[in-house]
What does this fold into?
Amino acid sequence: MAGSGSKVLVFSADHGGIDLKNKLVAHAGSLGHTVVDVTRTQGESVDYPDEVGAAVEYFLQRQADFLVLVCGSGVGVSIAANRHHKIRAVLADNPYTAALARAHNHANCLCLGQRLVGEDMACAVLDSFIANQPDLSERHKRRVHKLEEPCRT
Amino acid sequence: MAGSGSKVLVFSADHGGIDLKNKLVAHAGSLGHTVVDVTRTQGESVDYPDEVGAAVEYFLQRQADFLVLVCGSGVGVSIAANRHHKIRAVLADNPYTAALARAHNHANCLCLGQRLVGEDMACAVLDSFIANQPDLSERHKRRVHKLEEPCRT
It folds into this structure.
């Protein structure tokens, strides 16, 4: 049974991130989190903006806690995810980046690159992302709020 | 005199990224690139979405080659930059991530975290970002094009 600290995590990947995504899904599940894997590709080549768009829609509709996206480098999914104004996505390859993203930027989406981060490090990054809390100081809240505003460009 | 491979680079930072930004500006200038530093803060606390918005407007108007943004972690500026549909920003702490971002995602914006990356590594990341070229294979062009489309969420 999931503990009181358990979260709802939505996972997705493109063809270049399936193996690491599977590892992270198993890791999060073993910790008692509720895991929803909305990955559509079985290995065939897909376009990361499409996959991210579908995952974001599900994540927002489900009102889940965190979205975790994996591609080869993590870069494509991080760009695509941050196109969505309700998503604050960090590309992280170490636990401290993940911690700062949660605390200062109230990140709700973690992006990882299968070609760049080993499986154990990726699990440690995810653990840090889940464990750290948003810093609700006024300056951080104000900046995060501005991320939701429409862009002029 | 700038060589044929010289680029036009626009730099900006919030209060947490000024020192590393200054190092990168000097480094890029020493290599013969045209450097425009549009940083507004002299050290006083500012909100990274505002600073990124102003820098993106200048970058697009100037039609410069690359935008380089620095904050404490690099996360805030990378989220804010990717809100803009003509910007493809990567948060990179190593040269290979920067190379993949240029090749596969046609990244035009490099984001760095002063608290996370040493000055020499940051220069190496910038060198890699500048040196690598977009891979113009059809699949990469198609995916990058999709990043410019409006989001449904």
